[in-house]
Specification:
Radius of gyration: 25 Å
Strand order of the largest sheet: 7-5-6-4-1-2-3-8
Bound molecules: uridine-5'-diphosphate, magnesium ion
Distance between the termini: 34 Å
Structural class: alpha/beta
Oligomer: single chain
Order of helices and strands: HEHEHEHEHEHEHHEHHHE
Largest sheet: 8 strands, mixed
Length: 336
């Protein structure tokens, strides 16, 4: 009898773990770079060393220049000229970290793709552990931060709060204390490439995809050199992107506010009726009116703001512009 013709969003090729242990794998490492001139030579050195130590692996390193204004493009061009494993993709302007990673993924030809920051906060040596997990059958091996050195108390506290809040609100379980440092099987990469959204929260999107995912605990280092490219305003925007992409609970704020206001109003009405009808201590009470108006106006503006956040994202998604534009590519292009 013929096989039923089942169409799946992502074709799942049955691949036994033993298959993975036998084959020589091609590994693509994607490194987003924005003004990283101070670290790039060292990043290339440490990444190369880590990749050379891997057993039965061909590798390529894809640096994505996200519209840097320093010597990053010059350094990337020289690295691509000197090392045949290096490819450099130059975006036409700064599109942001998550989009730069997306561009790198689109250019990656490997059986597995590793995402790693340029600043050596994610130790390249951990890639070996991730690859072992993949060979043992995992489709995603994501780095989970055991410790984080070199970050401000403020950043640590807000990140902790954010991931707990996201966990409460999101319908998808997004692992806590993870960044984008991870290794993904080709199937997961192809699934990700089918997700066209502009406001990207890649760690959440990978969680949404499913497949088998395992954490690899690691200690996050301080930046090797240079300064963070995520100032507070950008971090906040990224957090709102994550929340709005994975939860519509904030949209329901209006309903909750309305419900609580109605309950409070009911008590107020009863109080007003009782004092008007049964006592002779009826005072105009402007303070209560004033507070109620201020509270309601605040609540309404907040709700409108929340709706605006979602609406704004809808508008940019609806335009359907390309996620990024490439101005140039340096280095050998692998064909898949
Ligand atoms: N990055 C990027 N485009 C941006 C901002 C950052 O490609 O607009 C890159 C940056 O070069 C680094 C990674 O994203 O490789 C993470 O940025 P950063 O280390 O500054 O963030 P932090 O670790 O401080 O959160
Ligand atoms: Mg960093």
């Amino acid at each position: 009898m013929a096989e039923p013709n089942v169409t799946q969003a992502v074709p799942r090729v049955a691949r036994e773990p033993s298959d993975r242990t036998r084959q020589t794998v091609t590994i693509s490492v994607v490194v987003p770079c924005f003004n990283e001139q101070e670290v790039l030579h060292e990043t290339h050195r440490q990444l190369s060393a880590a990749l050379e130590s891997l057993d039965r692996c061909n590798c390529e390193i894809i640096f994505v220049d996200d519209g840097s204004r320093d010597a990053t493009p010059v350094i990337l061009r020289s690295l691509a000229a000197a090392d045949p494993r290096v490819k450099a993709v130059f975006l036409s302007r700064n599109f942001g970290h998550q989009i730069a990673v997306t561009a790198g993924i689109d250019f990656a030809a490997g059986d597995v793709v590793v995402l790693i920051d340029a600043d050596l906060q994610d130790p390249p040596a951990v890639i070996a552990e991730m690859l072992d997990a993949w060979r043992a059958g995992a489709d995603v091996a994501y780095g989970q931060r055991r410790t984080r050195s070199g970050e401000s108390t403020f950043k640590l506290a807000t990140a902790k709060l954010f991931y707990r809040l996201l966990d409460r609100l999101s319908e998808v379980r997004i692992p806590m204390d993870t960044g984008d440092f991870r290794l993904m099987d080709r199937q997961v990469v192809e699934a990700l490439r089918k997700m066209p959204e502009r406001h990207r929260f890649i760690r959440g999107m990978v969680a949404w995809v499913g497949f088998s995912q395992v954490p690899i605990p690691y200690d996050r280092e301080s930046r090797f050199a240079g300064t963070t490219k995520y100032p507070f305003a950008r971090m906040l925007r990224f957090a709102v992107d994550g929340l709005t992409a994975f939860s519509v609970v904030p949209l329901r704020l209006a309903t909750w506010f309305g419900f609580s206001a109605a309950c409070i109003a009911l008590v107020g009405i009863l109080y007003a009726l009782v004092s008007r009808l049964l006592t002779d201590q009826w005072v105009p009470g402007w303070a209560a009116t004033f507070i109620a108006i201020l509270f309601m106006a605040g609540a309404q503006l907040l709700c409108i703001g929340v709706i605006g956040e979602y609406l704004g994202r809808l508008v940019t998604e609806a335009k359907g512009r390309p996620l990024y534009l490439v101005s140039q590519v340096a280095g050998r292009t692998r064909e898949r």
